[in-house]
Here is the input.
Amino acid sequence: MENLTCEKTARVTTREQNIISHEKAYVRVEPGVLWAYIHDNGERVGIAFLGPARFAVDAIAETDEGAIGESVTGALGGVQLYFGESNLDKVSRPAETSDTNTSGYEDIRALIDDLNSVLEECCRESQIDKVHLDDPDKEYMLIGRDTNQERIILALSRDGGLILTHDKRVYVVKKDNIVSLSDEGVIVADKHGERVVLRSDGIDSLRILERIEPIVTHSIGSVMRGLGALKSIRSMKYGAGRLAGAADNVDDFDWKDE
Amino acid sequence: MTEHIDEIKKELEEARKLKEELRKELEEVRRQKVHRSRPERRFRPEEPGRGRKPPRPRKPPRAFRLPDIEVDLEAFTDSLDDMMEQIGQTIEASVKEIGDIRIPGVRVSDTKKRRRSKRRADYQKIGPERVARIVAPLGSEERLKILDFLKTGGKSFNDIENYTGKTGSSLTHHLNPLIEAGYVMKGEVRGMYYVTVEGRLAYRLAQWLTHRVENQKMRNGRNESGGSTDADDHVDQEVTVVVEDEPPVESDSRQADRLGEARADDELDDMDWED
Here is the structure.
């Protein structure tokens, strides 16, 4: 953790800008957002920011049977940590004390201290000691909270996969398969629309339970491929590499349209 | 279950008794038959050389005549029928109570029938308001077109405009009910529209409904739909089968297969509606 720190210089946005722009998600900051670069051993790996921002995530998988999932939107509140390439510099200027005052900080130092404390707490909770993105231009991760102080973790991979945890909901989505945990229970669906739904009162669609393991592994692993930041599930990522295409074998579902 | 087994045992015991009575009666019949036939056996032609008179020509053998016995077989068979019927009813009642029973080599199951009748009873209770909530959002050609279009994948508002020919608020007027009904979902990131699993199901059921109603109209001789339909084709095929004078065995079997398929297709519950 001691490698990850915020730069001592703070900036403030002057225009609206998408900090994340991905086919399945965006995080948009508005003018007046205070932010500072996060360094990992002297290398810029992301930013910590504070101020008005919104997010939208399409946790939707398009299966042969129809779309599954939902679109999650909301406003961010408090300090957010973003890892990946950033273009905020282009729409920002150096922050002044008057900017920090409007956000409740006495000066820039107080702001940076707060950003660092949040970064430290987050790294401790999430057991992050190093951040590495294979392709920071196309891979992003956001760790923060919404305006209701519900935790949000969003990880996006370059091949269109995403992981979103928001409040009590969890989505792992690739283009055409999904693993989700929501009020409906745990849903595992593959590209053919075959689904297993685990609810408190039982399990639906037991038919593909025998193939559940490769589907789950493939779904999560393919999303995680390239996201080196989350070391704890790296073994699963490599496991999915070995089982690539395993879920493709689920091809006997009878659901013809014509 | 134990009560029924006891009843069955009792019935079987009665059957045994009746069988025993029948056996005794039959033995009695045999005894009487033996008794009557003895004098005939005594009548023998005398040995040659011993007799004084020439032997008389042998009489032709008398035809076998059943003795006149008073056995009320009709009453017996009637009672046996009654008894078997009772046993059958008892077994049936027992099976119904148990539901499924598994005997090696034999499977007695009534669950499918029960499940189907339960399902039928369930959906027949659905009131018009509930039906309207599900069906009303589908109630225009444009909305059905949208569902059909989205089948091929997520589409932007612009794509849907181009496909349906509806623009702006006119298209929104059709999209909103589909979204509210959960048949279509909108991705907020790029504003893409997707048909949901429920939407696909609703559209397929609407197609099935159309097929069934058109088919029924054709059967009743009222084709109110314009143009050739699947139902028309289906009926034409059936007529062709009847008109053709094919070899009877092959024709019959083919026709039976086709009729079987048609019947299976007609029954909503027989279709594979797994989700």
Q: What stands out?
A: The two ends of chain B are 37 Å apart (CA to CA). The CA atoms of residues 228 and 234 of chain B lie 11 Å apart. Confidence is low (pLDDT under 50) at residues 103-108, 228-266 of chain B. Chain B touches chain A through 22 residues (CB under 8 Å).
